[in-house]
# Entry
Amino acid sequence: MQRYGFTLKKSLGQNFLIDHNILHKIVAAAELDKSKGALEIGPGIGALTQQLAKAAGRVVAIEIDQRLLPMLGETLQAFPNAEVVHGDVLKLPLDKLVEERFKGCSSVSVVANLPYYVTTPIIMKLLESRLPLEHIVVMIQKEVADRMAAKPGGKDYGSLSIAVQYYCEPELVTIVPNTVFIPQPNVDSAVIKLKVRQQPAAAVDDEAFFFAVVQASFAQRRKTIANNLAGRFFTKETKGKLEVALKAAGIEASRRGETLSIEEFARLSRELARVLG
Ligand code: SAM
# Structure
């Protein structure tokens, strides 16, 4: 970096990994082999990219910071199976990119040390665009990993847990101290592995409405599910219909959103759609 006169940009979440042990743990969790592809988001100077290129048949790495491209050219020189795409992962058409650049691969996984300022939008884009992914193995803020993997009943469980677990099975791979980065972030980190489900975790007819019900149920965490839903979908006059829907879904009006499983939210959104016509 010194040779290139490169200075790290905090605004782009540039905390680079300097620990080989962690790099190997991330790559091992992705279960790659030479028939498979790896999509990396934010290669930085290419430390993880090199390990991915050794393990996978093909690697495509999307980097937003143009200043890193000459360095990546150097670090990836010996890896003709690795390619860098310059762009913002949130703006690129990932479905087209995956289809075109991983032709012939038996599967594709996302493997990355994500920029923390955009972790959730990136994960949601990957999930909602229904990319044909096998795994998503990412280093993220520990607190966000805890929320993604949380089970019903705790303070970490919320709309992010449901969105992630609707599409994937999460597994916490390891907790990472901040000493393995330069510069050191102020938060703890974790590697999380999301195994993308072939079918979503629950049968849902209208996904947009299902997620709207989930969002509304957590609008004010201290409120009961009935109060949160009443505020979002019903008036004083139509409130009776909410009771009908809760009863039909077998959910006590006094429960809080954080106690409902994905299956229960699916049932509830079906019954709510019915009474709302
Ligand atoms: N992979 C490297 C490592 O592990 O050392 C760097 C990881 S660093 C946490 C995040 C990287 O993501 C940086 O290189 C940053 O420039 C890049 N980045 C930030 N926002 C991005 C975006 N929207 N699209 C693509 N890359 C982005």
User: Anything to note?
Assistant: Residues 148 and 161 are 4 Å apart (CA to CA).
